[in-house]
Amino acid sequence: NAGVTQTPKFQVLKTGQSMTLQCAQDMNHEYMSWYRQDPGMGLRLIHYSVGAGITDQGEVPNGYNVSRSTTEDFPLRLLSAAPSQTSVYFCASSYGGTSRNTGELFFGEGSRLTVL
Amino acid sequence: GENVEQHPSTLSVQEGDSAVIKCTYSDSASNYFPWYKQELGKRPQLIIDIRSNVGEKKDQRIAVTLNKTAKHFSLHITETQPEDSAVYFCAAVKFYTGTASKLTFGTGTRLQVTL
Questions:
Q1: Which are the contacts of A89, defined by CB distance < 8 A and separation ≥ 6?
Q2: What is the structure's pLDDT at B40?
Q3: What is the mean pLDDT of residues A66-93?
């Protein structure tokens, strides 16, 4: 299993540009989420999904869109990038079933985004 | 929603000493408290967790304690080694079997173990 795979690992954008961060998991996890990590602020939840076709907002959703058309994929879209969105982004997944849900989040390697 | 505070933000200990990181949470309904370790340039990984029905859990040199009354929990690392140097995040959530978890993380503690 590859686990949670994020692309790209690095990206530089200009203000106003749009882009999509890709996230895929091959563990058949129901739960997927996006976090951003900023110095001194820990990991903050942007959006999450409890299954295909279901998404919801986290703590800092403004400026980001998500969709979950399949169990495996959970892309994060930046509609009009701003310098405040310069951050490291982590995708994570967790088994959300009824029998062996341990709550453990499995993170991708992260995507470092710089908005100029 | 849940609010998690973590202290200290940085911690430097000598190899072999113990390290303690403390977190407080605001939502008395929270019942699951994991700790994640993030090495430099790497992804966070779960190292230990505790549920609200126990007060302490140990795994070799790592232990976590929980005080539900005071709403705080702590990570204890004994006999620290250079490979323990990393950023540690606590988290809290109301979690139960059959649902997804929305972890609220603390702001992290950078632990440096010096020789």
A1: A6, A21, A34, A35, A36, A37, A46, A76, A110, A111, A112, A113
A2: 94
A3: 96
